[in-house]
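User: Some background: our group keeps a shared notebook of sequences we're curious about, and every so often someone picks one and asks for a predicted structure to add to the entry. Today it's my turn. The entry only has the sequence so far, pasted here. Could you supply the structure so I can complete it?
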Amino acid sequence: MFGYRSYAVVTADGETLGGTGGLTKITPGNFPPQWYLGPLGSAGLTAYVGLFEVLELKNDDVLWVSAAAGAVGSIAVQLAVLRGNTVVASAGGPEKVEYLRRVLGVSHAIDYRAGDLKTQLTKAVPGGIDAYFDNVGGDHLGAALDHLRPGGRIAMCGAVSTYDTSSPAPGPTNLFQITAKSLRVRGFRAGAYDELYADVRSEVGGYLAKGMMTYQETVFDGLDLAPTALVGMLNGNNTGKTLCRL
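Assistant: Of course. Here's the predicted structure to add to the notebook entry:
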C-alpha cells in the first residue's frame, strides 16, 4: 500500500486493498511462507470465493476460466477439476496451453492468441457453458456472453486486458445477451470474505499436502525488478504467482 520500498512503518489497522494487503500473522507449518501470498493467501481465497460463493458451482456445470495459468486462474481450474467439473481453460501461448492440459488436467485448453476466441470456444464446447470465471474482460467477456446457456453465471474477478491500455478499451457489444438469457453477472473482491480463509487453507492446503494440486511461481530477484515483474504479469509473461524475492 506504500509503493515499492525497502522500509515502511505499517500499523496493524492500516490501509488495505479491499481487505487484503494488510499485516497478517501466519503459521507456515510445512508450507513455504510465500505460499501465503498465493494458494493459501489472497489468490486461493479469490479462486475459492469466485467458484463457490459467487458462481455457486454445481457438479454438472461446464466452467470456463480465463487467464487460467495465472495465480488465481490456476487454482480455480484445479479446484473445479477436483470437484469433477468440465473445465475449459484459456491462456496465451502453446506452453501455457500444454501446462493447462497436462499438468492441471482441464478438459479443454485454448490458446486465445492462436485464432478467433469465439470459434475456438464453439469447437471446444459446442453445447455452451454454464459459468464463466472472468479474469480478463474485453473480448473474453464478449465471447462468454455468446456461449453461456440461459441462466448462466459470470464471476467478475478482474479485467487484465484493460489495466495497462493507453486509451479506453472497447467493451463487449453483446451485453443484451445478459437480458436475453437471464444471465447473472456479479463482481467481487475476495477481501470481503476473509472469514473463509480457514476453509480455503483447509481444502487447498490439504490438496497441496497430498500432491493433488500443483502450484507455480514466477520469481524475480530484488526490489528493483518489481516494476518489471508487474509489467510482465500484466502482459501474461508469467505462470502462477508473480513474486519478488527481497
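Suggested note for the entry: The mean pLDDT is 92. The beta strands are 62-65, 86-91, 108-111, 129-134, 148-156, 184-187, 217-221, 241-245.
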